[in-house]
Design a protein that fits this description.
CATH architecture of one domain in chain A: 2-Layer Sandwich
CATH topology of one domain in chain A: Beta Polymerase, domain 2
Radius of gyration of chain B: 22 Å
Shape of chain B: elongated
Oligomer: heterotetramer
Number of strands of chain A: 7
Shape of chain A: globular
Largest sheet of chain B: 3 strands, parallel
Number of helices of chain B: 6
Largest interface: A-C, 48 and 60 residues
Distance between the termini of chain B: 38 Å
Number of domains of chain B: 2
Chains: A alpha/beta (about 170), B mainly alpha (about 190), C alpha+beta (about 350), D mainly alpha (about 375)
Structural class of chain A: alpha/beta
CATH class of one domain in chain A: Alpha Beta
Strand order of the largest sheet of chain A: 1-2-5-4-3
Distance between the termini of chain A: 57 Å
Number of helices of chain A: 3
Structural class of chain B: mainly alpha
Radius of gyration of chain A: 19 Å
């Protein structure tokens, strides 16, 4: 009886060959550049299976929708917010299970108005990551279902990961 | 009905309301037990026995914060068995004697931990296990960590180590037993 | 009966670690769930910005105390990617062996907590006892029981102690025999199956969309294992099978983790046999170049990621940590609604919560 | 020489001793007061007065013996759990007697704890619940005889409580009421759910339990424990009524809230179930009483199914009874530590869909056997 009900390994969606190169990459790059000619800049391959692209923050939502629906990027891995001297940078790591690819989508926002469209409508996994970016770095996400602090107590005044917030108890 | 606040002297027979009678009888018993030789005698007889009982059955609270919580769980597992000393982990603060703080206390947790400490019945002790509980550990200069539990809870036993080993935890329990044995107080007269 | 918010507060035997689950209950069935984290937030990302690259190693250990070696290794990979260092062959095999031992110890820790939640004290005790064997192995290799600090940027801290290989092969044989015994202990008892089969079902689409990764994702039928699909260290040379299960309920998550322990035993054997002689560490420069580094590792709990931005000094400009449990917990509502209060324990236990990494 | 005569003798001897002094004192006093002393002395020595105190002494003796057994049960439970779980169990407390004093230490420690009544708790219910729970559990002991000679008897030729079995199960069924009151009164969500669950659990397991008891009583032909055990002189009831035996044990698991059906104090979900808000000696009473009910379950199983004090004569009756009770208790503990907890709706399913038909089938078998005249 031990484990008779277990499914045999290997079921589930079929996946592409292990070494990622050839047409899967090119197809992604071609479709993205065709649909967003003006705003996508320096789309490049970085290492095995990792792509990088810069995009303007106004097209972010539509680009992500395209990535999920047509190109099969079902999983948003990480949303990192980085503060530079002149701008805020948001790096979206989006993974595609089918062809084992990881896309690094970088958008930047001016220093005084750090707001971006929320992608939690596309991927449920982004919900809490965006709340954390708001909580620690203070980046606003438009039409996010419940944008409030998640890690820090509700009455915390600052955004601690900002450079001007000097740490200390 | 009694009027006078310090209550009637023993000789007068006066009708009482039930609450007053309870207060009056408490004060009389208080006089007999606490301040007189009867209390001292009773204490002398039962002090050692109850102290032995309290020493040998310490119930810590089943409350894990970080890596020291793993070591606390391992301490109750077969290899480092804490049950030999009568240490059983209870999950409600009402039935525990020891609050075992085994990780960094963030500012969000501080009120909750303080409430837990207040819920515990009186003869209670606190063990700060691991560097994070003693002084904030590797996160001492973090903006959201209270550096050290003893800032808002009186701590009796400190167990160093990051994470403190299970043997150190059991040694901490033994030290707590010695501590209870040293300041042995009578139940009634507190001497 | 009127709807009632129950507060499974920070201090609760079910929550292994500090988080709070507020569930709205209609009688015994759950209608709404809202997890709340942040009780263990130590501001690690802010601390890391003021420490040099080597000072962050012990901090990376204390991210998730259940599998501290995998987070230490993830940090080292990220910085090696930033600095462009190639780790010597022996260090790669040594890291793989140590990671798999850590995976078995972490899964056994999960099994102990899961059995204790369901009320099976015997499961807690046996899993804890067998975990001690792997803790001793890792202690002989690295020197400490829980937070190992074993990986360094550019390799491993020190070489293998004498007859380490003999002990670990013996431990793997013992573990495989024990897991057969666990199958009878757990799946033999009808009550365990009643509590697990068909509870907390997470469909494949929900799992992928909500960002659930690791054993809960593979238990929903998605065949995605970072060690196989985006291989790192010396995993390409080792042949093993990622484990999936079509159902996606608590029983499936239990099966995936038990089989993964068997796979890990196989991986340890192959890694130790193939380990070449030679250097186990390359010296890394003190300052990192300007640029970004990305590390992506299959943590026992899911997909752990770190993204570091170097600015030429010896301190990272920004270190972002992606914790699998932080995202999996956000999917708790989808798994909990519709089940009983008693199922909260089984479902949340199945996710192997490690709040250290979720709150950072 | 049964327990009644034994305690009657003691009280009689005691009263005579006191009377000698009393009469001597009475003779000194002037007329009126002296007669008053003589009347008191005569009344004390009268049969009715001595028999009352004899019964009180009987109850005390019985209670003390059972309590020592319950303490022993707690010790066995923790030692047996230790053996099953690869560790020693209580070891250093009472070092030379294998850690037996651990239970004493746990109990006595609770005496010196602070007594806390939660502020918003309903005081009356909060204070009443332990009294009912402990009282009803201890009342069961009065009904269960250890052997014909060793029971609470009211006259030398008495055969125990007339409807002993009925009385025992009536007392057994009072506990869920007090658990519900405790759950409601301590004003805490967890205890409320714990109380509800325990009421649901008891309801669904009371009926199969009593059906099995009915089948035993049908075979034995009488409600008193003595008749039930005497009827098992030829063959234990566990043999013909095997189904009833199994169903009875499962229902006892539920009644005494042992692990597979441990819902009301579910460690993992409801913190401590309905005892969450109790601290100090009230919690001590609850803990001790849960083991007392464990003993009662063991005793009822041996009395009804395993032929209470019937056994080869080289061991006296009560010892046989206790040996069987211990064995049953160890089996209960064995299941307790190795089975996970059942969910509340599965529990009710088992109670209504599985155990109820089995209990009815068992009753039919009993009636058939009785009508065939084999019993």
């Amino acid at each position: 009886m031990a484990g008779s009900r277990r499914g045999a390994p290997g079921e589930g969606i079929e996946r592409a060959p292990m070494k990622v190169d050839g047409e899967a990459d090119e197809r992604v790059i071609r479709t993205v550049i065709d649909s967003f000619p003006t705003t996508v800049k320096d789309f490049q391959k970085v290492g095995a299976g990792v792509l990088r692209a810069k995009i303007d923050r106004r097209d972010l939502f539509r680009a992500c929708k395209l990535l999920r629906d047509r190109l099969g990027f079902e999983h948003i891995s990480m949303i990192s917010a980085i503060e530079y001297a002149d701008r805020f940078e948001l790096v979206y790591h989006i993974a595609c299970y089918g062809s084992c690819m990881l896309l690094e989508l970088i958008t930047s926002t001016p220093k005084d108005d750090p707001t971006v469209d929320s992608v939690s409508a596309i991927w449920g996994g982004a919900n809490w990551q965006e709340r954390e970016a708001f909580d620690l770095m203070g980046i606003g996400f438009n039409n996010h279902p419940k944008l409030e602090r998640i890690l820090l107590p509700k009455d915390f005044m600052y955004h601690p990961l900002r450079k001007e917030y000097k740490e200390g108890p | 009905m009694t009027g006078k606040d310090e209550g009637p002297s023993l000789g007068q027979a006066i009708a009482f309301r039930s609450k007053d009678f309870l207060k009056w009888s408490d004060s009389v018993m208080e006089g007999i037990l606490r301040r007189s030789a009867v209390g001292r005698g009773l204490d002398f007889l039962t002090k050692d026995f109850f102290n032995w009982a309290t020493r040998n059955s310490i119930y810590p609270l089943h409350f894990g914060i970080m890596c020291c919580a793993l070591e606390m769980a391992v301490a109750s597992a077969p290899r480092f068995d804490a049950q030999r000393f009568g240490v059983i982990y209870r999950s409600t603060p009402r039935q525990c004697d020891v609050l075992l703080v085994n990780g960094p206390v963030s500012k969000k947790l501080k009120p909750a931990l303080r409430r837990l400490y207040d819920q515990m019945p009186e003869p209670k002790w606190v063990i700060a296990m691991g560097e994070c509980a003693i002084s904030g550990g590797p996160f001492y200069n973090s903006y959201s960590i209270v550096p050290g539990v003893d800032q808002f809870i009186p701590v009796d036993i400190y167990i160093p180590g990051c994470p403190a080993r299970p043997e150190a935890l059991i040694d901490g329990f033994l030290k707590l037993q010695k501590l209870i044995k040293e300041n042995k107080k009578g139940l009634l007269t507190g001497r | 009966m009127a709807e009632m918010w129950i507060n499974m507060g920070p201090q609760h035997p079910m929550t292994h670690g500090l988080w709070n689950l507020r569930i709205k209950v209609d009688g015994e069935t759950i209608t709404d769930a809202e997890p709340e984290v942040g009780y263990l937030h130590r501001g690690i990302e802010k601390i890391c910005e003021n420490r040099t690259y080597t000072q962050i190693l012990p901090i990376a250990d204390r991210l998730c105390y259940g599998a501290s070696l995998s987070w230490n290794h993830l940090y080292c990979r990220t910085v090696e990617d930033l600095m462009g260092i190639e780790v010597p062959e022996r260090a790669q095999y040594l890291r793989v062996a140590a990671l798999e031992m850590q995976r078995i110890a972490s899964h056994l820790m999960w099994l102990a907590a899961y059995a204790a939640d369901l009320g099976m004290m015997i499961g807690f005790i046996y899993a804890m006892r067998d975990r001690e064997i792997f803790i001793d192995l890792l202690q002989s290799l690295t020197g400490s029981r829980i937070t190992y600090n074993f990986c360094r940027i550019g390799g491993v801290a020190h070489d293998v102690p004498p007859d380490f290989e003999r002990d670990s092969l013996r431990a793997c044989d013992y573990m495989e025999k024990k897991i057969r015994e666990y199958y009878d202990l757990y799946e033999g008892s009808k009550v365990f199956m009643m509590r697990n089969v068909g509870v907390g079902v997470l469909t494949k689409e929900d799992a992928m969309n909500l960002g659930v990764t690791g054993p809960p994702l593979r238990a929903s039928g998605v065949r995605y294992d970072l060690r196989k699909d985006m291989p790192y260290e010396s995993y390409p040379e080792i042949d093993f099978q990622p484990i999936t299960h079509p159902d996606g309920d608590c029983y499936a998550r239990y099966c995936v983790r038990m089989e993964e322990m068997l796979e890990s035993c196989k991986i340890i054997r192959q890694a130790l046999q193939r380990m070449p002689k030679g250097k186990w560490r390359v010296l890394a420069p003190r300052n990192a170049p300007i640029g970004t580094g990305l590390g992506r590792v299959e943590d026992p709990r899911g997909e752990g990621m770190m993204y570091v931005v170097g600015d030429g000094t010896d301190r990272p400009y920004r270190l972002k940590i992606r914790s699998p449990i932080f995202v999996t917990v956000s999917a708790a509502k989808r798994m909990l609604v519709g089940y009983k209060v008693a199922d909260v324990v089984a479902i949340m236990g199945g996710l192997d919560m490690c709040i250290g990494e979720a709150d950072r | 020489m049964n327990l009644y005569e034994f305690s009657y003798g003691i009280i009689h001897w005691l009263v005579d001793l006191v009377n000698h002094l009393w009469y001597w004192l009475g003779s000194w006093l002037p007329g009126g007061l002296g007669d008053f002393f003589d009347d008191v002395g005569n009344f004390a020595a009268s049969h009715s007065n001595i028999s009352v105190f004899a019964i009180v002494l009987e109850a005390i003796i019985m209670f003390v013996i059972i309590l020592v057994n319950v303490l022993n049960f707690i010790w066995i439970d923790r030692k047996f759990m230790g053996r099953m779980f690869d560790f020693y169990g209580p070891y250093y407390v009472g070092y030379r007697i294998g850690g037996w004093l651990q239970n004493l230490a746990d109990g006595m420690k609770l005496f010196v704890k602070e007594i806390i009544v939660p502020a918003k708790a309903d005081r009356f219910g909060y204070l009443l619940a332990p009294v009912i729970f402990v009282g009803s559990s201890i009342a069961i002991l009065a009904a269960i005889p250890l052997s014909p000679k060793f029971a609470i008897l009211t006259s030398p030729t008495d055969t125990g409580v007339p409807a002993g079995v009925l009385f025992a199960f009536a007392m057994f069924a009072i506990a869920p009421f007090s658990i519900l009151v405790a759950g409601w009164a301590s004003n805490n969500k967890y205890t409320l759910i714990g109380g509800m669950r325990s009421a649901a659990q008891m309801m669904s397991y009371e009926i199969p339990l009593l059906l099995c008891v009915a089948s035993v009583v049908v075979l034995a032909g009488g409600f008193s424990f003595f008749e039930v055990v005497e009827a098992q002189r030829t063959v234990w009831f566990a043999i013909p009524l095997v189904i009833g035996f199994v169903v009875f044990i499962i229902c006892m698991f539920a009644e005494v809230e042992v692990q597979p059906f441990d819902l009301p104090e579910a460690e993992a979900e409801l913190v401590e179930g309905w005892t969450t808000e109790y601290s100090g000696m009230r919690f001590g009473l609850f803990m001790m009483t849960s083991y007392l009910r464990g003993y009662c379950a063991g005793a009822l199983i041996t009395a009804l199914f395993l032929g209470g004090w019937i056994g080869p004569s080289f061991i006296p009756g009560p010892i046989w009874f206790l040996i069987k009770a211990y064995i049953v208790f160890v089996i209960v503990e064995w299941a307790r530590w190795s089975l996970p907890r059942v969910r509340i709706d599965q529990l009710l399913n088992i109670g209504w869909k599985r155990l109820m038909p089995l209990a009815i089938v068992n009753l039919m078998i009993a009636v058939a056997l009785k009508s065939l005249g084999w019993f």
